[in-house]
Amino acid sequence: MSFDPARFRALFPIFQAPFDGPALHYLDSGASAQVPQHVIDAVARQDSTARANVKRGVHRLAEAATEAYETARLAAARYLNAPSPREVIFTGGTTGAINLVARAFGDTLGEGDEVLLSVLEHHSNIVPWQLLQMRRGIRIAVIPATSDGRLDLDQLDRLVTPRTRLIAVTHCSNVTGALTDLAQVVAAARGVGAKVLVDGAQRAPHGPVDVQALGVDFYAFSGHKAFGPNGIGVLWGRARLLEAMPPFLGGGEMISHVSFEGSSWAPIPNKFEAGTPPIAPAVGLGAALDWLAGLDWTAILAHELRLTGRILDGLAAIPGCRILGPAGLQQRLGVVSFALDGLHPHDVCQFVDATHGVALRGGHHCAQPLMESCGLVGTVRASLAPYNDDGDVDALLDGLAHAIGQLRG
Ligand code: PMP
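The joint structure predicted for all components is written out below.
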């Protein structure tokens, strides 16, 4: 079955909203995806019919709120094929999820233990480990990138040592769009008894994930990139690991008993959800994930990759355009970064927005180590979602041609 982006697009009120100037061509879903009406409605319904605090009240509203919140947890567990909803922790986003692991799992590590990252990581999968390094004296090692913007997994043999405790890598680069072959990473980790954390921020919005088939230990993603609300995200972790980890934040709901002599912790997932959680955002994310799970991802990915191919071909025809990432369509998603000789990414983005209504991202994309390894300060990035169509690609390529004509003078 072929996929009809127009029908998909009609679900999103932003594309019907009136704008001054040119029509919107939204190619920045890698930063934040747009939200369909039914997700907006689910959030509004929660606040207008069942607003109360969760987990503690016994009145009807509190019970309704708790049920809605736990139903959202079930949706997240199904989306990830998690063995149990107890393994799903709601966080503020990918950043919150990785910081939770860097704190709680990290506090079980000590001097000389190693965490292996990659040069493709987003700052949110680098800096929490540097903070851990300052606290616990761990060592950080880094998997380099290949010339086409993938993790250089041939280096794993050299980089994984008997002291490696965790390999924390992205499932899909937010700069190059390359998908990581996690099977190789998991095999290398298992060889030395290390755990694997996956930053799924860019991959999770492109169809359900099977954490059991992947064989990883932790998986993190953000609601706002997965057509859900802001301020909500998911950490999945194996129950055995989560149970063995100390809490990250302390407060209400994460305890079993508190006294000044000492406190004890609630079972997972509550142990890691201190305080009042983002209830309506969680309900909205649950609605988004249930909906995503029912879509035809074979057709959608074919659609996104066809558009990606058109962008890559268009860029290849521009003199002085350097594409970061795979030149082909294998093992990648619709994220394309490029640098135009002599032009600053911000100038290009502002120009194509003003003249052609194209929303792009320009800068280092929170991946400064990768930029530096490529000798760049930043790139322009186009990132796709199922609502994008040929008109968006036409606007992008026309806009770039104009920008180059005007800005390169
Ligand atoms: N990892 C990757 C690969 C990302 O693209 C992003 C968002 N740009 C993040 C982590 C951080 O996500 P958030 O800001 O939602 O926590």
